[in-house]
Specification:
Elements (H helix, E strand, L loop, with lengths): L1 H26 L2 E11 L4 H12 L7 E9 L4 E6 L13 E6 L6 H14 L2 E9 L22 E4 L4 E3 L1 H15 L3 E7 L6 H5 L5 E6 L11 H9 L6 H16 L14 E6 L3 H17 L2 H13 L8 E3 H10 L11 H11 E6 L10 E3 L4 H11 L3 H6 L1 H15 L2
Parallel strand pairs: 1-2, 1-5, 5-8, 8-9
Antiparallel strand pairs: 2-3, 3-4, 6-7, 9-10, 10-12, 11-13
């Protein structure tokens, strides 16, 4: 009995120490892990090192792990780095935690693999995923009829493999990320052009809390990582909404007054953040507008297409600002008499969805949320088949409204 007693005591002691150890491990988790997926397997390669050097000015801290997967054409390899502080702007000095050789950065499974590795090695209470590279909104690379001089490329185009991560695949990747983390991704961001679109955010509405990105093209320097990390680390406890606002504010601030760094040649920018928990109300606004436009007579639908053409556009002329569309419809007296669509109700829904929007002078009409808005039936037909595969079309039938309005306008045009 005495031996049994002492044996049980030892078991309880070991069990207690185990529980205490686990509790300490949980307590010792940092607040955030910032996972940055840098695809330099293309003509943006030099900017990858530029941005990593910016990160190194602050480095990882007691609050934030900064972890990077960096593919570089110049280096002919892919590395996983834990970013540490230094003042050498000429080279990257952060330790290489894993070398991968050449990998296909245009394969969404590669992104998921990096996220899995980052969560396992740098567990945290919150996670921020940043996909860095060229971006082209939801347009698909295979659709070459849009422009003879520019091939749309979704995001993360790898010149070596000729692959890219499509909009639906990006949604799949975030779904896998949420499964790996055991909860929704706190923030997803695109350090890439033209990604602040309803169509893209919709693919991850069930797996991400906050989505951040730009409606317009981004300068090559992209985000000012040193300013973002410095501001982020000023606060002892930073919520996901606060971090999303920090990135938005610091990004636009860095390009005001001709800023942006030694590479910069384009200073007019936009940036915004979406609360994806408010997606359903945004959907209702889009669906209500679409249903209303479909019921207008042909003469009014022709005027609607005129409003499309006046709406704030971005690099792709069929990407336009959603709330500015309402302003243009209002100017043509197409909305104010409708009993079905409340202009104020739509504004409230979008302002609830877009939690912060910052722009420079040339984009005063941009309100943060871009949407597909072709002004020609030919453009619609070029993309309609692919658009039909997107979650946004499935949930709002926006493409159906575009088809009917553009068809009616084309018929009524002499």
């Amino acid at each position: 009995m005495i031996r049994l007693f002492w044996w049980l005591c030892n078991v309880f002691i070991v069990f207690g120490l185990f529980c205490i150890g686990n509790a300490r491990a949980v307590d010792q988790k940092k607040d955030w892990t910032f996972l940055v997926y840098i695809n330099g397997n293309n003509d943006l390669d030099a900017y990858g090192q530029f941005n990593i050097n910016q990160m190194e000015r602050v480095g990882s801290t007691e609050q934030v792990n900064v972890v990077v997967q960096w593919a570089s054409t110049a280096n002919q390899k892919t590395q996983r780095l834990f970013i540490t502080q230094d003042r050498d702007n000429r080279k990257v000095t952060s330790p290489v935690m894993e070398g991968l050789g050449k990998v296909d950065m245009g394969d969404w499974h590669t992104l998921v693999s990096f996220i899995q590795w980052g969560v396992e090695h740098y567990p945290a209470k919150h996670y921020f995923i940043d996909v860095w590279d060229h971006g082209s909104g939801w347009h698909d690379l295979k659709l070459k009829s849009y422009s003879p001089n520019f091939n749309p490329m979704d995001i993360s185009h790898d010149d070596h493999s000729k692959n890219m991560i499509t909009t639906p695949q990006l949604g799949q990747a975030m779904s896998e990320a949420a499964r790996i983390m055991g909860h929704k991704v706190d923030i997803y961001g695109s350090d890439a052009c033209l990604m602040a679109m309803a169509e893209i955010a919709s693919e991850m509405k069930n797996s991400v809390h906050y989505f951040i990105g730009s409606e317009e093209i981004e300068p090559g320097e992209g985000w000012p990582y040193d300013a973002i990390l410095a501001e982020w680390n000023k606060k002892n406890s930073t919520s996901a909404e606060e971090v999303a606002k920090i990135v938005t504010n610091e990004y636009v601030k860095s390009y005001q007054g001709g800023g942006g760094g030694s590479f910069n040649s384009y200073n007019e920018v936009t940036f915004s953040a979406f609360n994806l928990e408010k997606t359903e109300r945004m959907y209702s606004a889009v669906s209500a507008l679409g249903a209303y436009l479909r019921r207008l007579d042909r003469s009014k639908q022709k005027k609607v297409v005129q409003a499309f053409a006046r709406t704030q556009m971005f690099y792709h002329s069929d990407y336009r600002d959603f709330l500015d569309l309402f302003s243009q419809l209002e100017k043509l007296n197409l909305i104010e008499l409708s009993k079905e669509v409340s202009l104020q109700g739509v504004k409230d829904a979008i302002h609830e969805y877009v939690i912060v929007n910052r722009v420079t002078t040339d984009y005063a009409q941009a309100t943060g949320l871009s949407i597909w808005l072709p002004t020609k039936l030919s453009t619609y037909k070029s993309y309609s088949e692919y658009y039909s595969t997107l979650q946004f079309q499935h949930d709002t039938r926006w493409g159906d409204a575009l088809r009917e309005v553009l068809q009616a306008a084309a018929v009524s045009t002499p």
